[in-house]
Amino acid sequence: MRDRRDTLKNPEQELRIFRVRALLAVLTILILTGLLSGRLVYLQVVQHEVYTTRSEKNRVRVEPLPPTRGLIFDRNGMLLAENRPTYNLTLIRERAENLDATLDRLEELLELTPEEAEGFRIRARQPQRPFQPALLMSDLDEVQIARLAVNRHRLPGVEVEAQLLRFYPDANIMAHAIGYVGRINAEEVKTLDPGRYAGTHFIGKTGVERFYEDVLHGQAGLRQVETNARGRVLRELGRTDPVPGQNLTLTLDRDLQNLAYELLDGRRGSIVAIVPATGEILAMVSAPGFDSNQFVTGIDFASYRALQEDIDLPLFNRAIRGQYPPGSTIKPFLALAGLVEGVITPDRVINDPGFYQLPNDSRRYRNWLRWGHGRVDMERSIAVSNNTYYYSLAHEMGIDRLHEQMSAFGFGQRVGHDVFGESGALMPSRDWKRARFNQPWFPGETLSVGIGQGYWQVTPLQLATATAVLANRGQWVKPRLASRIGDEPVPVELPDTPNDIAVQSDVWWDRVFSGMEKVLTGSEGTARRTGVGLKYRMAGKSGTAQVFSLGQDQRYNAEELAERLRDHALFMAFAPLEDPQIAVSVIVENAGGGSTHAAHLARAMTDAWLLEEEAPDADEIRETMENDDSSVAGN
């Protein structure tokens, strides 16, 4: 009987199956080995550079090195803008694992208020170039630094950087002249050179800081560092040092600037002082001021709103943007223009009954002295500030010649070289009125221009510049704020300087100056109280600018008006007369007559510059003004 097991086994078939399976297994192994080998070849050979670079990026990091911003000094080497060491909180978004979670932790650690937290998140999401640190917070204190250090492992992408922060020692006094730096915003990021500003968080926003940004900023550098797995720097592999910004020396005199601010004594106004021969701006004050240091680190919303809503407008730079009717301060310029145009001679005399009338017009244009000054020549018209003389002169010249002659002194134009944000104000003309109002020019409007009223508007810088040109006997030197950039002096002769003013006879200058000197020293001079005890010869002219127009028979009474409806007080002057070293313009808003409330301030500025230690201080000047009961009337 055959064995049943023989019928159940088939060795040959099993051998074939085994061989097939073994072959498939070998083929599978060969294929997989081939694929693995191919992948290894692809990664190690073809993609070698790519993965080497990626590996290095994990181990090696390139960090920007921001340059040190140039310092700003006054003409005597006194520091006006410096850099102080501080710690800033920055965030590289690409390295943060979870941005929202990271910001939540930071807000908790730093104990931010809701308002601070909102600004914090806005800055964190502000458009930024890839892998560039975003500045979240400046000027960290020791407690905040300690909390961040302890929790650093929970804050990927967050760094505490030691950097230099801008600081202004005389912030309130210098705020408008120097300006300030602030955080770079989203719009500025789009236009700035990414290489030059790598790692930089601040940029000049206003004033000298803005105008000379290219000079002060410098050039960013780079360093290559090796890091560990947690991103901490182990060693420095290479470095390109940053190029620091150049230092800037200004023409401003810190002591004179401080005096001007003290003289204004919290009142709204401006004082500008210039060296006529060189155009150097010695002082350029706008009051009230503000603490510019608040804007460096980022002013909080409540403080900024308080500044914006302040009725005294501390953020408004009155020295270069304030526009005021020049009042009678322009009478010396008009007198010279009348001589140049041949309309008057130095000895021409008019009879002033206290008013002027246009031909075939019943309206009376009043002199400030209602009963008139009687017989008035050119010098006396300046000394007593006679309106009737200049009504007549303006009518004979006409607005077209008035506009041409006054424009030659810089009125209606931007006059500064490096004064950022300056306004051109307004020197009205026939064409201007047609374009602005689509109306013709009327003769009565010419009379208003003839006494510095009507449409005519000037800035304190314009008035000081025109006074300097007058002191130079027509020679133009453009005002400037910088005297040296690094070690290189800024040239006196600057581009786009207007043409000099030529006259037929030097005697004309002498006669105009004589009238201006009599303003301070003459028996009828409107500012004769200010001229008491002068130790040098000084030429000046007072002015009173109306805030609103009076009716023909209406009289001005300051006591019946709200304070902000009262006249502005103006004064312009230069000294010494024979060799002018300083030209000054003063505007005090709503202070009344310029002969009493502005003249003393101009005298104090010239005393301080010319007499130095012998000059009275601000307290003595205020006492003098209080004792002056305005018994000297005049414009």
TrEMBL record:
Membrane topology (UniProt): Single-pass membrane protein
Phylogenetic placement of the source organism: Bacteria, Pseudomonadati, Pseudomonadota, Gammaproteobacteria, Oceanospirillales
Gene3D superfamilies hit by this protein: DD-peptidase/beta-lactamase superfamily, Penicillin-binding protein 2a (Domain 2), Penicillin-binding protein 2a, domain 3
Record-annotated membrane-spanning stretches: 20-42
UniProt KW Transferase keyword: no
Domain Penicillin-binding protein transpeptidase: 269-604
Catalytic activity from the UniProt record: Preferential cleavage: (Ac)2-L-Lys-D-Ala-|-D-Ala. Also transpeptidation of peptidyl-alanyl moieties that are N-acyl substituents of D-alanine
EC identifiers of the protein: 3.4.16.4
Location of this chain's protein in the cell: Cell inner membrane; Cell membrane; Membrane
Annotated region (Disordered), positions in chain: 615-635
Stated name of the protein: Peptidoglycan D,D-transpeptidase MrdA
Family: Belongs to the transpeptidase family. MrdA subfamily.
Organism of provenance: Billgrantia aerodenitrificans
Domain annotation Penicillin-binding protein dimerisation: ranges: 65-237
GO MF terms held by the record: serine-type D-Ala-D-Ala carboxypeptidase activity
Record key words, sorted: Carboxypeptidase, Cell inner membrane, Cell membrane, Cell shape, Cell wall biogenesis/degradation, Hydrolase, Membrane, Peptidoglycan synthesis, Protease, Transmembrane, Transmembrane helix
Stored InterPro entries: Beta-lactam/transpept, Beta-lactam/transpept-like, PBP_dimer, PBP_dimer_sf, PCN-bd_Tpept, Penicillin-binding_protein_2
Protein's job: Catalyzes cross-linking of the peptidoglycan cell wall.
Enzyme class: hydrolase
Active site: 328
Pfam families (alphabetical): PBP_dimer, Transpeptidase
Pathway(s) of this molecule: Cell wall biogenesis; peptidoglycan biosynthesis
